[in-house]
Write a structure and sequence with these properties.
The protein contains 6 helices and 10 strands, in the order αβββββββααβααβαβ. It has 256 residues and is of the alpha+beta class. It has 2 domains: 32-36 and 123-246, Rossmann fold; 44-113, OB fold (Dihydrolipoamide Acetyltransferase, E2P). A hairpin with a 5-residue loop joins β6 and β7. It is globular. 23% of the residues are buried.
Amino acid sequence: MIKKEKFIKQQVSRFMNSFAGGVHPSQSKSTSQIETEEIPLPKKAVVPLSQHTGSPSKPIVKIGDLVKTGQLIAEATGFISANLHSPVSGKVSAIESRLHPCGYNFDSIIIDSDDKDETVEFKKNDPEKLFSDEIVEIIKNAGIVGLGGAAFPTHVKLSPPKEKKIDSVILNGCECEPYLTCDHRVAIEETEKVVVGLKLIMKILNVEKGYIAIEDNKEDAIEKFNNVIASEMKQSQANKIKIVKLKTKYPQGAEK
């Protein structure tokens, strides 16, 4: 019996912060040390009405309308759908079918940029003074979706069935694919915002434990996260957030 328990502990220790199997392709992540740059505004913006999981959005603008950056131009048409906002300021020149990156044609709103990038005024809110459902409503109205392949609406993820008890939130900071370094740069350049975002998710879901899972080849990001969390230890949730360093291998970070 003692040998069996010892064997189980050895196996648990073996796969702690990892999983069985996996491969180790060349990382080729030279861009991880290059700062993020803003690209010039496009002369013409094509906004597909179907760029997220669920129902396509419904246009609320018409040809000839003048719009500003951040203005709502299409509304969600169901619970699993998302609002769309203009990425530029300018004039709506067409609403027509256009080729989508997935290879199919989808109805899209075409906006000719005026190069002014005039932005709508956004109401500023103090998250500490908002209830959870109010924060979810703001996220829904903002049309925030996941940046994975499915582009799943975030407000849906943050609205689990009431009978389902959630005890922890895991922020997936893994980026095991070769060449990709966008998550790494976000972790370095927007560390404070990432931590604030995790704290908001914890508040919405009413959980006490939050984890940032990140691979051990991102020591600079791990150090920044630790520094930010340490500086916020006096805040109510900061001491409930922990950094978990994972082994670097593919497909680390996969949901299954």
